[in-house]
């Protein structure tokens, strides 16, 4: 990435506004007005052939007439004129263009958008938008947008795919007292996309948390890559997760929103913390922008009321950081600052009698104690206390402790005085929230961030002994026969070439051969139809299991052939496969798709009827580390079945995780060949006894 060019876009020293206007209410007027009102210190060049001056700035007929260095050109003229303007900007030596104008890919004019980007690139320019609100930056006193004002100042920076939402958020920052340094609208992402903005903000000294509102990525894989490398926390709200929502997002932005589950997994892999809704995005951004990560889950709650304490306790468990009792020595010390009827366990209940001093003493002591890794301070407004006094006591206690690597979050429940006190806390670097559960959720975000940082450097798994040559021979043979569907035998050959244990198979083309192979493999055997035209073999009556003798083989042979012909008269039948009958095991499914956003993506779930009915599956974008493969096993609801429930021994999770890695390696290695695939079922045995791929399917990409 060229930081210099992106700096030109997001932190310009000089700006031309193309389509600047003297008419109040026009976007071309509002942008110039906003630059003045935000007290922008760089040079402003309005471009308009019909005006001499706009809002005190000298106006130029074209951008080439300016003849001074220009970092950014903000374009507000109608869509049909934009392409020519790009040439003029290029010739004027502009670094980047921000196209506010809409009416491009989002209304179907994909080619026009493409042409603009190609043209801009030929001059070395980057394009933000089109279809954007603009760029707002507090630290640069730069409101290069048609949003009314700079956001409430803070340390997070937000990138939004929706322009209207960005304007709404801009205003909401004042109401909520949750600030941002930058708000960046990226609209259609014709060129500059999420990955670019993440890279830029990660290097921006005025941003400490990167906050994203996402409808859909264009290059999901790069987002994962840059996010994994980012030094700062990234928190994202993804919309369009409902089936209906996805359709709405697609028509709004011209970019297709991917499946919610794939996104969820991709976020986890990218080290992007997810927000549940808009409020949650604000709340988590606030915590992540102000506080350090929570290194382990020893969170202590200090409160003056049992009610908020219990609410906090419930929330802690709900968000994955369940409370533990503080050690004896901590309790002993805390007891000194509460009445007889208080509680020094966790939550620490100072009771309604708690004033500034008790808050100060307990916060100061707790944050300094080695057991405590994070502190949540709760307070209910009382008649005897002043919220601002409590807020100041908390802040002072933290400062005095000198501790900077343990997070603190606060919640005051009360009226206007509490509200004011919380604003003060936020301004002084301590996130404060209206309800205890929100403070605990914020703490959980800081815990998630700590965990992400620990796993950020895990190396992706690769299988050194993979036989790609063999796999390609199988694939090329199918292609030479004009087939995209591989047979089970072919698919198993490829799975095996990538190290996965498959059942022994032999293809028979006559009853006699079937008997011979069954004897070679050893009874009991399984017999299945082999035809590229019959993908779901059971549906066609094409599978017979547990065949124990010659007679059974002969009967099965005739029946399977009869069933297959009845199912599809013109099916191209290669024969009948004889395979070892794998002993019963827990059935799981592994599968893959070549996701349009993220590329080769692996799916794992419990097999059999569970997968169809429960949809209890999880995804991971390949490749990934061995550790991430292990974590997939715990991500499904049925995880306890693998761990062994009700007297059942645990399944061989180690081999399963290893097979997931091998599978991932296969779909990455063959990403140009495989469109989708699955191993369903994989039979997983007791710990130490491994597993077997009983059925395999591969669909090739169309070429
Ligand atoms: P389908 O094309 O219908 O998915 P499968 O090959 O998966 O066909 O066979 C259907 C079922 O038969 C499987 O779900 C599994 O329970 C059982 N099965 C298939 N092959 C074997 C085998 N080699 N050993 C044991 N059971 C098998
Ligand atoms: Mg199957």
Automatic annotation (TrEMBL):
The keyword Chaperone does not apply. Gene3D superfamilies: ATP-grasp fold, A domain, ATP-grasp fold, B domain, NAD(P)-binding Rossmann-like Domain, Succinyl-CoA synthetase domains. Residues 492-528 form the ATP-grasp domain. InterPro entries: Acyl-CoA_Synth/Transferase (IPR051538), ATP-grasp (IPR011761), ATP_grasp_subdomain_1 (IPR013815), CoA-bd (IPR003781), Ligase_CoA_dom (IPR043938), NAD(P)-bd_dom_sf (IPR036291), Succ_CoA_lig_flav_dom (IPR032875), Succinyl-CoA_synth-like (IPR016102). It comes from the Bacteria. GO terms for molecular function: acetate-CoA ligase (ADP-forming) activity; ATP binding; metal ion binding; transferase activity. Keywords: ATP-binding, Ligase, Nucleotide-binding, Transferase. PANTHER family: 3-HYDROXYPROPIONATE--COA LIGASE [ADP-FORMING], ACETATE--COA LIGASE [ADP-FORMING]. This is Acetyltransferase.
